[in-house]
Structure formats: structure tokens, C-alpha cells
């Protein structure tokens, strides 16, 4: 399905457009949730992978909703701070849940390739 050919403003809807009928789609992330979502320090390969995979999922879901490639109920708008909000996949919707499972599979594949690559670098010649 091709994205709508409306002006670019239609792709980045204003936060206020999450109107009264969509208030159940709004969730403000607390600083504690933010720290749990994105590790502040990346001291291990696992932390780095967690950060990259979560950024990938966040970016993918925000683009999918902004371009209206799936129905809006498959996404929830999360307010990251006063000035930043993003659309995330809604796991409570069956289609959103399936999409998230596919994304997790893709992230796992990226993680396996990353681990194999790092082991190749560490192997003595």
C-alpha cells in the first residue's frame, strides 16, 4: 500500500490531533519508563543491542502510523517528553501484536548476525 500523497504536514500530525475520541491511545512515558526503555549506559553488547532494537521498533512503528499504512488502532501515541511524541505498535490489537512479533524476529536476526560478526573480530588469526 502506497503512502498518501498529501502534503508532508499530513504525515506528521500534531500531538493535539489525538482528540477526545482517541485519548485511550495516549500514554505519557515517565522518566522511570524511559530509563527502562532505553539504557542510559551501554557497557555491554547486550545493552547496545537493546538500544538499537528498541530504536528500530520505535522508528518503524512511527513511520508505519505516520504514513497511515495500517489502521490507527494498531498504534498508540506515547508522549516521550513535553516536546516529543511518537507512535508505537499497540500490542493489545491482534494485528499490532503480530507486527510486533515480526519485528522481534527481525531484531533477533540482527542480534545473531551482530554476535557472529563480533566473534569473528575477536578470533585470533
What does this structure look like?
Helix content is 50%, strand content 10%. It has helices at 8-11, 31-37, 45-66, 94-122; strands at residues 26-28, 75-79, 85-89. It has four helices and three strands, in the order H-E-H-H-E-E-H. The chain has a single domain, classed as HORMA domain (Cell Cycle, Spindle Assembly Checkpoint Protein, Chain A, 2-Layer Sandwich). The protein is mainly alpha-helical. It has a three-stranded mixed β-sheet. Strand 2 (75-79) and strand 3 (85-89) form a beta hairpin.
Please give a handful of descriptors for the protein shown.
mainly alpha, Cell Cycle, Spindle Assembly Checkpoint Protein, Chain A, 3-stranded mixed β-sheet, disordered N terminus
- The end-to-end distance, rounded to whole angstroms, is 49 Å
Q: How many helices in DSSP terms?
A: 4
CATH architectural name: 2-Layer Sandwich
| Main pleated-sheet profile | 3 strands, mixed
Principal-axis shape: globular
Determine the fraction of residues in helical runs and give it as a percent range.
40-55%
CATH superfamily: HORMA domain
What is the number of E strands?
3
Order of SSEs: HEHHEEH
User: How many structural domains?
Assistant: 1
CATH topology: Cell Cycle, Spindle Assembly Checkpoint Protein, Chain A
Quaternary class:
single chain
Adjacency order of strands in the biggest sheet: 1-2-3
In percent terms, what proportion of residues is strand?
5-15%
- Rounded mean pLDDT is 70
- Derived structural class: mainly alpha
Name the poorly predicted regions: 1-23
CATH class type? Alpha Beta
- Rg over C-alpha atoms, rounded to the nearest angstrom: 17 Å
InterPro entries: HORMA_dom_sf (IPR036570)
Amino acid at each position: 500500500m502506497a503512502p498518501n500523497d498529501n502534503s508532508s504536514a499530513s504525515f506528521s500530525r500534531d500531538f493535539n490531533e489525538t482528540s477526545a475520541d482517541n485519548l485511550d491511545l495516549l500514554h505519557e512515558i515517565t522518566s522511570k519508563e524511559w530509563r527502562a526503555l532505553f539504557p542510559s549506559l551501554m557497557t555491554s553488547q547486550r545493552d547496545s543491542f537493546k538500544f538499537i532494537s528498541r530504536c528500530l521498533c520505535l522508528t518503524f512503528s512511527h513511520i508505519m502510523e505516520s504514513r497511515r499504512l495500517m489502521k490507527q488502532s494498531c498504534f498508540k501515541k506515547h508522549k516521550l517528553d513535553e516536546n516529543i511524541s511518537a507512535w508505537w505498535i499497540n500490542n493489545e490489537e491482534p494485528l499490532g501484536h503480530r507486527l510486533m512479533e515480526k519485528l522481534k524476529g527481525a531484531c533477533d536476526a540482527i542480534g545473531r548476525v551482530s554476535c557472529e560478526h563480533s566473534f569473528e573480530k575477536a578470533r585470533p588469526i
